[in-house]
Every structure is written in structure tokens, then in C-alpha cells.
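Sequence and structure are no longer studied apart. To make this concrete, we show below a single chain and its fold as C-alpha cells.
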Amino acid sequence: MKNIIGLGIVVLVLMTGAWECSFGEAKMSSFKASKDKEGKTESTTFKAGETLYAIAEIGGSSKTTTKFWLVDGTGKTIPGSDVKVDLASGGKATYTLPLPASVPGGKYTLNADMLDEKGEKKDGKSVAITIEGGSAPPKSDDKTKKDEAGEE
């Protein structure tokens, strides 16, 4: 009889903990950048022209919005990198950013903020990213000069 009561208490404690984990306040349990959409090839180094993927793992059962954005070394947000992903409950918020071939090389920071239904920040994480820069596209004046000189 004592074993049954003891077992019942253990089960009750475990169920209470599980209930709290699945129905508690939402939080971001992890955030990583990768070379593939599924997050199998985690990376913090990318080349110009590649696609940067990221996954934020959100726990809890409430509706959330995850806001992603990339900033350069001076703290300036990279145009077109600001994306919001809505989740009805916990799960994976995924991010995709094709890096232009002309992106300058350097140190960047990929950010993810988790917002509640009211738009208030409840959690956030960041990943330091290194981008190996690409070549700048030719200026239209250079192309015109080559055409005039008979070059291609």
C-alpha cells in the first residue's frame, strides 16, 4: 500500500511538471543559424550568395511572434532582413535570408525576439555571424566604357 501511495505521489509530481512545461509561459529554448532549412548543418560562417537559415525553438502553448533581423558590425539593420513568423503554439520559427552576391564581408549579428500576443518581448537570442564578402557588381559606367571600346 505504501508503494502505491509513493508511486501515486511520484506520478502526480511528474504530471504537474509536464503540465507546466507544455502549458507554461512561452520561451525560446534555442536559436541557431544553419546552411540548410532543416537546421542539420549548423553554421555561423556564410559566403556572399549563399542562403542563411535560422531556427528558433519556441516552447509553450500560447500564440507567439518571432521577429528575426540581421545587423552589421555598426548595429545597422540590413535592409530586407527583418521578418516576423507567427506560431499558434510552441514549435519551430524558421527564417530564410538569401545573401546577395555583393554583400560586404564582415561580422554580423542575427537576432530573434519572441513576442507574446500583446507584442511584448518575452525572450530573445542572437547568433554572431561571419559573412565572407562577394564581389561588387560592375558599375553601369564600366560596362558602357567596355562596350565603347569593343570589349565584352
Q: What stands out?
A: The mean pLDDT is 83.
